Amino acid sequence: MSPSWQAFAPLVVFAFVASVTPGPNNTMLAASGLNHGMRKTVPHILGVSIGFSVMIGIIGLGLGKLFEAVPQLYTVLKYASALYLLWLAWKIATSKSGSENSATSRPITFLQATGFQWVNPKAWVIAIGIVSAYMPQGNYLLNLLIVCLICCIVNLPSVSLWAGFGAVMKRGLRQPAILRSFNYGMAVLLVASLYPLMLENAHH
Question: What sections of the protein cross the membrane (predicted)?
């Protein structure tokens, strides 16, 4: 039985809003676009979109059930994610901009961006929400594949906007002090993205 595409319309809306709003991935992409340019950020962009879609697929195949059975694993992941994001914020805040940066650091690779999804709190929340709330129940494996493809297609241009924003900022802001301020701002946003995670911990 072929899937009803109308059933996926709410998913498209949710995936777009979740993908285009600020979060760790978009903050890092904006910083990468500014510090490395759009072309060198493409592997990072692809790693985010494909890695997130693969994550949804794996959660849909049963990993989410494992966290329900052993909630301590999710707790460990949350704290590890928070520490890693704080380290990334420090790296962004202390990175050099412009031509100096290219000699001392490299943009995030495809595999690094793919792996980052597994320590990204926002990615976890969205992926679990998609599987639990937007998955049609019939013909599960086919629908799971369609959901992964939809999320990848919607996510790719959404996150690309953030990398493009950073690249435009690089061309428009030439002064090192302003570029450093931009990196500081991105670092602060990355730390601020931990607020929902800390709020969740406070309620437990």
Answer: 46-64, 76-93, 140-165, 177-198
Half-sphere exposure of 38 (CA within 13 A, CB side): 12
pTM recorded for the entire structure: 0.76
Q: With helix as H, strand as E and coil as C, how does the chain read? A: CCCCHHHHHHHHHHHHHHHHCCCHHHHHHHHHHHHHCHHHHHHHHHHHHHHHHHHHHHHHHHHHHHHHHCHHHHHHHHHHHHHHHHHHHHHHHHCCCCHHHHHHCCCCCHHHHHHHHHHCHHHHHHHHHHHHHCCCCCCHHHHHHHHHHHHHHHHHHHHHHHHHHHHHHHHHCCCHHHHHHHHHHHHHHHHHCCHHHHHHHHCC
Contact 116, 23 (CB under 8 A): no
Residue 114 is encoded by which pair of tokens?
């793919």
Q: How far is CA 149 from CA 35, 48, 56, 177, 186, in A?
A: 30, 13, 10, 41, 29
Q: Hey, where are the domains in the chain?
A: 20-202
pLDDT in tens, 139-177: 888 999 999 999 999 999 999 999 998 888 877 666 666
Residue type for position 132: S
Which two tokens mark 46? Answer: 């692809």
Q: pLDDT tens across 85-136, in order?
A: 777 778 777 766 544 444 446 889 999 999 999 888 888 888 888 888 888 7
